[in-house]
Amino acid sequence: MQRRQFLAGSAGLLTAALAPRFALANVPTPFTFDMVPPTGSREEFVKWGVSQRGEDPKFLGERFDRYGALVRNEDLWEDRNKHAFLLTPREEFVLKQNLGRAYDHAFLDIGYGVTISGPHIVGRMTSTIDVKKGEKVLEIGTGSGYQSAYLSHLTYNVYTIEIIKPLAERTRSIYDALIERGYNEFKGITSKNADGYYGWEEAAPFDKIIVTCGIDHIPPPLLQQLKPNGVMVIPVGPPGAQRVLKVVKNQAEDGTITVARSDIYGGRIVSFVPFTKLEGDVIKGTHNE
Ligand SMILES: C[S@@+](CC[C@H](N)C(=O)[O-])C[C@H]1O[C@@H](n2cnc3c(N)ncnc32)[C@H](O)[C@@H]1O
Description:
There is one protein chain. The chain is an alpha/beta fold. It has a single domain, classed as Vaccinia Virus protein VP39 (Rossmann fold, 3-Layer(aba) Sandwich), CATH 3.40.50.150. It has helices spanning 11-16, 42-53, 57-72, 79-87, 119-129, 146-151, 165-180, 220-225, and strands at residues 108-109, 115-116, 137-140, 158-162, 189-193, 206-211, 226-236, 243-251, 257-263, 276-279, 282-286. Strands 5-4-3-6-7-8-9 form a seven-stranded mixed sheet. Strands 1-2 form a two-stranded antiparallel ribbon. Strands 10-11 form a two-stranded antiparallel ribbon. Helix 2 packs across helix 3 (57-72). The chain binds S-adenosylmethionine. S-adenosylmethionine binds at residues 114-117, 140-141, 143-144, 146-147, 161-164, 167, 195-197, 212-213, 272-273, 275-276. Residues 114-117, 140-141, 143-144, 146-147, 161-164, 167, 195-197, 212-213, 272-273, 275-276 line the site of S-adenosylmethionine.
């Protein structure tokens, strides 16, 4: 349905300002869920990435270096998550002027007053929800598209919502251009422009939900759309000072639902862009209570 929803004619102009796109040839070896990039050495990984994925050796090397830092920092927990990180070309999702910083330990401006989250946060939040192949995952806050691109290496069932319409369109056009180049894994991403506070009723329930904007409470519709025993990760707290919570919706044998919360950073404050609100067609204020 909303797969490849935004084939907007104007999107090409927007993407032109965006990225490197040297490797315009088709991806030599299409993605499969049993694809395992080599992790023995930087040299081996770069050689593999050039021959199998047709990617730029400079970015492959930087990706491998950042991967090493994420592993040392315990932001990547399982092999599947490690491989997904290594398979996701972050350089395709940053603005052209930030290409030199694509693999920095930092969030970066993506226009429209919002950011692409830093790789360590993306790695830890994704590890927390531990997505398995076939699971249905909802992301609130598509932004650059990097998070959902990463998720698409873990399951073929990714739904993502972005509130800023031109950003949602721009990101959809990036996915579509990458699909044209042979990144068939991005066909697993269904996107729409909407206010994510209300989730995605028609696609619910979800095994996992990942929220990438900060709010002072857990949106009841998201909790409701999470399957029993499902897991959500969400930054909760006052503006600019959230704690990133893992929320597990437990269902006992008698059907009773309880919610368990834990802090994935042991209490450390992390700052996220606000969880804004759509009134009609206009973004107005936030969903904070
Ligand atoms: C940290 S940024 C983007 C992170 C993103 N996951 C990525 O990989 O680039 C958070 C995003 O949430 C979006 N957002 C904020 N409030 C929202 C809402 N109510 N519904 C959907 N998206 C929202 C922002 O516009 C922004 O693009």
